[in-house]
Amino acid sequence: MAFWARQICVWCSSVKTCSVANSIQRLRKTHRTWMQLHQHSALSLLCSDNHFLQCGLKTNRSVSLGSHLQSTNSSNGQIRSSENNLLSPVNDCQQQAEIIPSSDTKTLYEDWEDTPPSSALEEISEEEAVQIVAEPPLPLESFTLRDYVDRSETLSKLVLLGVDLSKIEKRPNAGQLLLRMDFEKDIRKRLLFLKDVGVEDNQLGPFLTKNPFILAVDMEALETRVAYLKSKKFGKEAIALMVSGAPFLLSFSVERLDNRLGFFQKELGLSVQKTRDLVVRLPRLLTGSLEPIKENLQLCRIELGFRHNEIQHIVSKVPKILTANKRKLTETFDYLHNVMGIPHHILTKFPQVFNSKLLQVKERHMFLTFLGRAQYDPAQPNYISLDKLVSMPDEVFCTEIAKASVQDLEKFLKTL
């Protein structure tokens, strides 16, 4: 009876949301299923070896299958008689038997009654509570991006590209910028743009590590700046070298890029082609500060005594002189010109000597002086060019230039 009461409640609620015809059809289907269940239970009961299927209903509430199938209007006495006949083995053994439905029966029960959803206020056991694993909350503030990598698709994909988040988080506002971005909407199209410009796949990570702010630059502005470089006759390979070598290049406006190119062309008196070659070889000239460049140019003119055309040649051959350390540049020139006696025109012919290690120049010059072979005048015999003096490895230098062995050089250096 309890079962039929629950079914009536379900049907009543169904009428509220479904049509009357559907409710009647469901009632008929449920009745047929109930009749099949009782037939199945009766066969299981009669065919067992005095073993009964327990059903959760106590035996004193069990109803005889035969009497139920014959008529629901039978007298109470007839029903009790049928129950006593069927359940007599249990009474003899003084046991309380229960009927357990089979797996098919359980499936039918599950079809009849919808399992109510669990409530947030429902009490659970301690064992179930221990099994619950709660993810740690996302920190509202942090000094490192590492706390957000596992929870941010953008950061995790940038790490796979080779971006060093430990360097980015040291930049003001860079970490907040990346956390606010969506990889698919904000970053992917800019990565594809950089690849089209010429940045290699293995360079994307280092590129974004140095300049993550390019991800916030408007796409139209990026395209405009590349179009400007093309209008200045920079080829595709040249633009690729410039963008890869100077990650901040495309973060500068067209006006700033144009002013920088004009500065080098006017200050150095270079032609348009030589100006292009200069910034392609050292694109940082377009993005770095102009102050050290102006100071080095003044140093070469006034303190080192190079003429204008000599400076043009030196800068065209070795653009790094424009950004070199002033102290190192002065000390190298002083030793080459005042100690070794090399004039300006020879230094202008071999400006690579300014990029060499001063200690190596000193050691080799003193060794050649000790051997009597320190001769740097091209008009004299046994001439030794500055290029060979600083570019050759020790083995070749000793064999071809000093005409000695490496052991001789090492012994000499120990005496210094």
Shape: extended
Helix content: 55-70%
Radius of gyration: 46 Å
Number of strands: 2
The N- to C-terminal Cα distance equals: 112 Å
Q: Give the helices and strands as they follow along the chain.
A: HHEHHHEHHHHHHHHHHHHHHHHHHH
The number of helical runs is 24
How much strand content do the residues show? Answer: under 5%
Structural category is mainly alpha
Overall pLDDT level: 76
The main sheet comes to:
2 strands, antiparallel
- Unreliable segments of 5+ consecutive residues: 1-5, 8-21, 40-114
In the sheet with the most strands, the strands line up as 1-2
Could you give a quick summary of the protein structure above?
The chain has about 425 residues and is mostly helical. The chain has 24 helices and two strands. It is extended, with a radius of gyration of 46 Å.
Structure in words:
This protein is an all-alpha fold. The protein is 62% helix and 2% strand. It has helices spanning 2-17, 20-47, 65-70, 76-86, 88-93, 103-112, 126-131, 153-161, 165-168, 174-179, 183-197, 201-210, 219-231, 236-245, 254-268, 272-281, 291-303, 308-317, 326-339, 344-349, 358-371, 386-391, 394-402, 406-414, and strands at residues 54-58, 98-99. Strands 1-2 form a two-stranded antiparallel sheet. Helix 8 packs across helix 12 (201-210). Residues 1-5, 8-21 and 40-114 have low confidence and may be disordered.
